[in-house]
Amino acid sequence: MTQVTRLWPLLTATHRYDKSISTWQRGHGVRIEAPILAYLIETRQGRILYDVGCDYSKLHDPARRARWYDPQAFPMGAPEMTEEQRLPAHFARLGLSPADIDLVFLGHLHFDHAGGLCEVCGAEVHVHADELAAARAQADEAYFADDFAGDYRWKVQRGEYELLPGVRAIETPGHTAGHMSLLIELPKGKPVILAGDAADLQENLDQEIAPGSLWQAREDLAIASIRKLKALAGETGGELWPNHDMAFYQGLKRFPEYHS
């Protein structure tokens, strides 16, 4: 029986960029606006956070912004993030603090998914071993080294596993070496499968298009992960949620409303 009670999508920032970043070898010259999301999962055994968004200080401190978002070195550009979109602000609206987060599950370690670790530094942090190795080796420019260089409570994992009843980690490499998605069994509604960046857009799922950024150009690995997620959705009757699709996000319940 699932231990999950509620699920909140949290909008932590928005990012405008070339669509080809989300769709492999298509969409060049088309600008899209993408949500940067985290997901708060309340369970009877504690609170889980899937992804943590960006590091606010890198976006708002001029020196740090110049260091990490130098347009010459990082042409993707900087997201837009307000004080109200920071994780502690979301938590406060629910009467919580960062200390109330028990476990952080990172789908991968790119800057827009792992940068906010500094906001929840007391929680146990789950990440795939291959992902942490790729990040530390700076496998691509979207890994910001100091996002994951702090004194965090790492729990490095391999394979698929159950975090607790009703929450299961799913291996979906391709976008990055150790990318992980998450299956969440809700108490009343359909299961939710958080694709993470295995599928930025609904288009990635519908047309089986790999993300535009790939680990070692492994398009085959990324498409296999998309097909795996679609098969899982079929087997479980679950809803498969893409991660950076603004139209899809706008169809979800708005914080502080929740899915259950």
Write a brief caption for the model:
GO terms for molecular function: hydrolase activity; metal ion binding. This protein has 260 residues and is of the alpha/beta class. It contains 8 helices and 11 strands.
Question: What secondary-structure arrangement, pairings included, does this model have?
Answer:
Layout: E1 4-18, E2 31-43, E3 46-50, H1 56-60, H2 62-68, H3 87-93, E4 103-105, H4 111-114, E5 124-128, H5 129-136, E6 153-157, E7 161-164, E8 167-171, E9 180-184, E10 192-194, H6 202-206, H7 219-236, E11 239-241, H8 246-250
Keywords: Hydrolase, Metal-binding, Zinc
GO molecular function: hydrolase activity; metal ion binding
Protein name: N-acyl homoserine lactone hydrolase
Molecular structure report:
With 260 residues, the protein is of the alpha/beta class. The protein has one domain: 4-Layer Sandwich (Metallo-beta-lactamase, Chain A), CATH 3.60.15. It has helices spanning 56-60, 62-68, 87-93, 111-114, 129-136, 202-206, 219-236, 246-250; strands spanning 4-18, 31-43, 46-50, 103-105, 124-128, 153-157, 161-164, 167-171, 180-184, 192-194, 239-241. The strands form two sheets. Strands 1-2-3-4-5-6 form a six-stranded mixed β-sheet. Strands 7-8-9-10-11 form a five-stranded mixed β-sheet, covered by helices on one side. A hairpin with a 2-residue loop joins strand 7 and strand 8 (167-171).
Specify the helix fraction band: 10-25%
- Look at the structure and name the CATH superfamily: Ribonuclease Z/Hydroxyacylglutathione hydrolase-like
The secondary-structure class comes to: alpha/beta
Inertia-based shape: globular
Number of helical elements: 8
Low-pLDDT segments? none
Strand order of the largest sheet: 1-2-3-4-5-6
Instruction: Give the CATH class.
Output: Alpha Beta
Whole-angstrom Rg: 17 Å
| Percentage of residues in DSSP E strands | 25-35%
CATH topology: Metallo-beta-lactamase, Chain A
**Number of DSSP-assigned strands:** 11
Q: How is the main sheet built? A: 6 strands, mixed
User: Mean pLDDT, nearest integer?
Assistant: 97
Written as H for each helix and E for each strand, in order along the chain, the element string is EEEHHHEHEHEEEEEHHEH
